[in-house]
Automatic annotation (TrEMBL):
Source organism of this protein record: Sediminicoccus rosea
Protein name: Tetratricopeptide repeat protein 38
Keywords recorded for this protein, A-Z: Repeat, TPR repeat
Family: Belongs to the TTC38 family.
Record keyword Repeat present: yes
The keyword Transcription regulation is assigned to this record: no
Lineage top rank: taxon: Bacteria
């Protein structure tokens, strides 16, 4: 039996097929745009191997788009017919759970796989992703620190483990470890987008804006051939410029960096959840600063309206609602709320609960805010504050929802609620709110 690059036994007919699968996994880990083509090559070399079919399913689920779930299930059915060893059968069970909406079960199975096979980079990376989008930073941290003793610099994929260590530690608040791991991953491979992204997070949390801009611009020549993650890194660059009040540069990056509608990468997946989150959250932040963003909301609102009823990505839902409200599409916004309530009532599992308890209040608050009902927006959103992390997203991404609550509290003259929010962000961010553009005006006369 063949083995993968990390030494795990795998059901491949030949060493050549195993190498093709390894090449695809490397593309997956490094966010390469040609990863689907690499998977196609692996399938052609060994169509009877179960793992490439499982990766087909995984890629379909990674899009967080309801329309892709049937393709994921079809790929899993094909993998099921092909059998596989016990480790591969656990992969099948995890992906089955994910396709069924049982993210908790999927995460638990990936944890079992890496406990038994700590060099299973595919299970580790899916776990890292799944835990992140369920708002479980401790699970991300436990996983990477648990497997790290079983890795060294000679094992293919070690740099990606370091990149994940950087991001997991950043989200857990261990910023020194995070920065060291991320910079070491970049030293090994300057094109490691996940590592570049993790260090950008550290610099943002610490308010190191000039360094952040220099970090990203210095690495950007290595981003060629990367997928949509490079858009998110440019979003981070725009966040640094936003904090410096450089609004023209933010809009330039919007149009040419992270929401570049002329880019072939964007055109491949024009409504990809992370790209639309980047765009909507930045426009929302800019408008809070009084910046005229022109007609940029319109194309996002078109995509938001087309995705009404698709609730797979709980964190994306408030971003769709931002676009609908900003474009004045209130009837569509009401339909979106109704579809979210229907989804929560008709489905069980973790995601419907998170949509009901966190996403729905945020979306309701956005519509109330758009209608000038700021006190009502605060009232509907206040009970969700403690559970918003379950929507997924990083501290930097979640921050836009906290700005939403603060904005409504200030507009309604609810000083106690504004203070509550300022205390929350002060406890979590090393950079004090008076040094952050989204909070500065609210801190005048406030004692933290």
């Amino acid at each position: 039996m063949a083995h993968d690059a990390q030494g795990n036994r795998a059901s491949f007919a030949s060493a050549e097929a195993a190498r093709a699968f390894d090449h695809m996994v490397e593309g997956f880990l490094k966010y390469r745009l040609d990863t689907p083509q690499r998977l196609k090559a692996a399938l052609q070399l060994d169509p009877e191997a179960p793992l490439p079919h499982m990766m087909q399913a995984g890629f379909a689920m990674l899009a967080y788009k309801a329309a892709h779930v049937p393709a994921a299930r079809a790929a899993l059915d094909q993998a099921r017919k092909l059998g596989g060893n016990p480790r591969e059968q656990m992969h099948l069970a995890a992906l089955d759970a994910w396709a069924d909406g049982a993210q908790d079960r999927a995460i638990a199975i990936w944890e079992r796989i890496i406990a038994e096979h700590p060099r299973d980079i595919m299970a580790f990376r899916f776990h890292h992703f799944g835990a992140f989008w369920m708002g479980r930073a401790p699970a991300m941290w436990n996983a990477v620190e648990g497997i790290l003793p079983h890795w060294d610099g000679e094992v293919p994929g070690y740099g990606s483990v370091l990149a994940c260590r950087a991001f997991a530690n950043e989200e857990a608040g261990h910023l020194l470890i995070a920065e060291h791991a991320g910079r070491e991953a970049i030293r090994r491979d300057p094109a490691d987008l996940w590592a570049a992204h993790a260090v950008a997070h550290v610099l943002e949390m610490q308010g190191r804006r000039a360094e952040g801009i220099a970090w990203i611009t210095g690495l950007s020549r290595h981003f060629e051939g990367g997928n949509n993650l490079k858009h998110h890194i440019f979003w981070h660059q725009a966040m640094f410029h936003l904090e410096r009040g450089e609004h023209a540069e933010v809009l330039h990056l919007y149009d040419t960096g992270f929401r570049n509608l002329d880019s072939p990468v964007t055109q491949m997946q024009p409504d990809l959840y992370i790209d639309c989150q980047n765009a909507a959250s930045m426009l929302f932040r800019l408008e809070r600063q009084g910046v005229d963003v022109g007609d940029r909301w319109e194309e996002l609102a078109e995509k938001a309206e087309a995705r009404i009823g698709d609730c797979l990505s709980a964190f994306t839902l408030p971003h769709w609602m931002m676009a609908l409200c900003a474009a004045g599409r209130f009837e569509a916004a009401e339909r979106m709320l109704a579809a979210m309530r229907d989804y929560c009532g008709a489905n069980s599992g973790e995601n419907p609960r998170v949509v009901r308890e966190a996403a729905l209040p945020c979306c309701e608050a956005l519509l109330l805010r758009a209608r000038g009902m700021h006190a009502a927006a605060v009232a509907v959103m206040r009970p969700a504050l403690g559970g918003m992390h379950e929507l997924g997203g990083s501290h930097a991404q979640q921050d836009v929802l906290e700005q939403l609550f603060l904005d409504c509290a200030m507009a309604a003259g609810l000083d106690a609620d504004a203070q509550l929010l300022l205390e929350r962000v002060t406890g979590r961010w090393p950079t004090p709110p008076e040094r952050r553009v989204g909070y500065r005006s609210a801190t005048i006369g406030w004692r933290g």
